[in-house]
Amino acid sequence: MKKVLAFAMAAVMLCSVAFGLSIGNENDFDGTTAAENIYMHSVTPGQSIVFTQEELGLNDSNWGKTDGNFDPAKNKVTITFAVGNELITSQGWIKTDATTYKYVVNTKASETAVLDNNADLIISAIKVTVYGVSKPILDAKYVKDVSGVTHYAYVDSVEALASFKVNEPGENFCAMNEKAEDHVLAMAFDYGRKSDDTNATFDKNGVVVNSIDLTGKTIYTVKAATVDGKYVNSGVWSVSAQENGGGKITASVTLNAGDKVYFGTVNKANLSANAQKTFLDNLNRHSATIKASYGYESAQNTINKTLQFAVDGMRAEYRAYMINRDGTATRLDTTFDKENGILSFSGLLTGPVVVTDKALSATSSGSGSGSGSSSSGSDSSSSGSNGGSQTNPETGSNSIVGAAVALAAVTAVSAAAISLKKR
């Protein structure tokens, strides 16, 4: 079993067709069921396994209600894990729109776990009971004993995972050593990222990544190189952007041979309409103008490391903020180089970054970087639920397996969580 480093993030969105269970993040629970290998589902650390009400045998005629509406407290879901219970951080009902709930099982974050075609998570049973009803709505088993050998529910192709019925598992069971292209384990999950030990290395300009995966689903081990006859085992990864005529922002981090990294994107367009409105209202309320941005006007690349930011053509009183997934802002402490007009700050990038000419309502976060005089003044506080709590970048323009981000993905399901059970 892989050992994991738990550091809080949550996030693909592999998923929900008619019945097949899905894998997703806190905002994107719909997508296409898929596997990164030919034997079972794959789950990127921090992603969630997601079940619709219908997949759990619930519908408007049988689910528990209060005042005529679905009541999470009256619809109990018990999931039994034959393997991998320690990889689960929380689970519970999530309200995804005005009338819909999904049951979400969140997995731990990890900086090291890699896919290896082994079943790190296996769901052996799901039981669903409704308040006031003695007979379970669902009492499904996905593991059974055959002559003293444990067998597991399977489908006959990776494509068939999309149509596997969680509430009707059928009679196809095989032993673990019989898993194959036509014996794909239906309720087993390989936990980790694809491993790449060759495509992240050094050239004369610093760190270069060939065939970069911006979904957060590939973990690269940085490889030393010989450049112009010299052995190189350390260098800078950097990206720059200048959006909408604002100041140029350069983000950078020093990487060493052996470091393990993965990449994603940040993009305001990935935020919900309500989150975008929340941030815009914040700007307007303070009559603030954006002077520079990264990931606000278009998608920008990021990495699972703390980045150092340098912004050209700024002023001492300008402020830097990261936009959280709920639209609230986290203030990034800045340092201003008055001789060169450069504003500096640092942070682990989980959302778009903006530099404004006036203070916004925000929660406080990390310290600034660079040299010179520090910015002065104070920001009004915000009670946003996600302020400063996200720890990984978001992966992909539509957040695939949630990643984070999602690259991360994002924090564990939070504001939308209903009766979320911590493990």
What features would you describe in this structure?
This protein is flat. The protein has 1 helix and 36 strands. Residues 1-19, 26-35, 366-378 and 381-422 have low confidence and may be disordered. With 423 residues, the chain is mostly beta strands. It is 3% helix and 39% strand.
Q: What's a concise summary of this model?
A:
By secondary structure, the protein is mostly beta strands. The chain is 3% helix and 39% strand. The protein has one helix at residues 273-285, and strands at 22-24, 41-43, 48-52, 65-66, 69-70, 75-83, 88-95, 101-107, 121-130, 138-141, 143-146, 149-155, 173-175, 184-185, 188-191, 194-196, 200-203, 206-209, 218-221, 225-227, 230-232, 234-241, 249-256, 260-261, 263-266, 290-294, 300-303, 306-311, 319-323, 329-332, 335-337, 342-348, 353-356, 363-364, 373-374, 417-422.
Helix and strand arrangement:
Elements: E1 22-24, E2 41-43, E3 48-52, E4 65-66, E5 69-70, E6 75-83, E7 88-95, E8 101-107, E9 121-130, E10 138-141, E11 143-146, E12 149-155, E13 173-175, E14 184-185, E15 188-191, E16 194-196, E17 200-203, E18 206-209, E19 218-221, E20 225-227, E21 230-232, E22 234-241, E23 249-256, E24 260-261, E25 263-266, H1 273-285, E26 290-294, E27 300-303, E28 306-311, E29 319-323, E30 329-332, E31 335-337, E32 342-348, E33 353-356, E34 363-364, E35 373-374, E36 417-422
Parallel strand pairs: 2-15, 16-19, 30-34
Antiparallel strand pairs: 1-3, 3-8, 4-5, 6-9, 7-8, 7-36, 9-10, 9-15, 11-12, 12-13, 12-14, 17-18, 19-24, 20-21, 22-23, 23-28, 25-27, 26-33, 28-32, 29-30, 29-33, 31-32, 31-35
